[in-house]
Design goal:
about 450 residues; mainly alpha; Serine Threonine Protein Phosphatase 5, Tetratricopeptide repeat; three-stranded antiparallel beta sheet; 22 helices; 5 strands; about 5% strand
Length: about 450
Amino acid sequence: MQRVESDTTRRLDGWKAIAGYFRRDRSTVMRWARDRHLPVRRIPGGKHGSVFALEDELAAWALRYGDLDSAEPAPPPPASPAATGVPGAFRWLPVALALGGLGATAAAVMMWRDPAPLARPVTAAVALPADRQAAADFVAARDHWALRTEADLDEAIRLLGRVIARAPDFAPAYAALADVWLLEREYGAATDQTAFANAKRAAQQAIALDPNLAAAHRALGFVAYWGENRRDSGMAAYRRAMALDDRDGQTHFWFANVLADAGYDQQAQLEYARARLLLPGSSAIEVEHAYSHWLAGRDRQALEELTALAARFPTDPNLHLCLSWVYISLGDFGAFVRENALVAKFRNEPGAIREAAALRAAYARDPAAALTLLLHQRRAAAMRDAGSTRQSPALFAASMGARDETLALMTEAVAAGEHWYGQGVRHRLAARYGDDPEIGSLIDRLYAPRA
């Protein structure tokens, strides 16, 4: 699943290594990436820096330029895909592979051949503000965003605030701020309501400045799908983002997540493959890719892969959130309680920590009472937070065989006008209660297609 490269190709990680290759300072190569199409690749999920480059591509680029210190303008951008006969940004060759594990289905994996690897960069030139300090802060903010810790996300927000103050018309700063807020709800202490509201506001400002900024449309797609329960609007925004920039790995990654949630397993596996090729080394993609097996019904495969990832990334709150859902769907309530506490701990959100502690104490006394408490907590969240639904507590109740609680939650959801999308949850509800006339009717109503 990797691009074919020569045996002598060496990868340079980070701006410092790339600058060292040319014996220039960091700001110079950043300027070349912005103005001269230096072939630098971004890896938002990478562990060794936010960018990397390949020596053979740098050498070919330098040969085309000749005098690197000249003031000549940048060469014209590469020919459009239509002019070169390349469909989109890549030529993808689909190969069908059978995946192992429970309920496995055939999934296509995409292999990539770049028709002219030395003639153009793999990704678009990095956009930077003209102001040098703002440019440095922007690069640093993206580095912090990629690290996905609460402290790093807070620092990214601070730095992007400085960028916006110095370069208020620089649209990518607002899109980057939206990205940070979207991760704050998973890796930081922000509530969903706060994170989604701030992300939407920042993304809308980015689009007001640049209507064709793909990252801003991607952020709005995330908010629409996960924060506002508007599946069709969310998918349309993702498709718009990919039409504007089909080589953005983060867009393919997040689009894969919504496809997996909506039940399009084969298409999701293709998007995960694209994302992993574009963003090598991303632990976030590994986690969500493993979780997608659970959404498709491959529970044991998901559990095995997520457990292995937990040994590598023990403090990742999103990983523990995925594990908690897998465990409770398998009927292991004790493991769910444990993973739920780890989610709260690593997000460091005071309210979630208190709820998790109360749940652990209740489970130690009486597991049945703990389930009642969990359902009360999740029902309250659905009623409190805009865009939230009772889908997750209904799944939890059904997984533990609590038929009356499942019925009550689904009845409330219909009365509240909720519409559910998660097909992984739907299949589990149907598997347990599809023959139950009352619950079966509610499943049909809650998951009915919208006009």
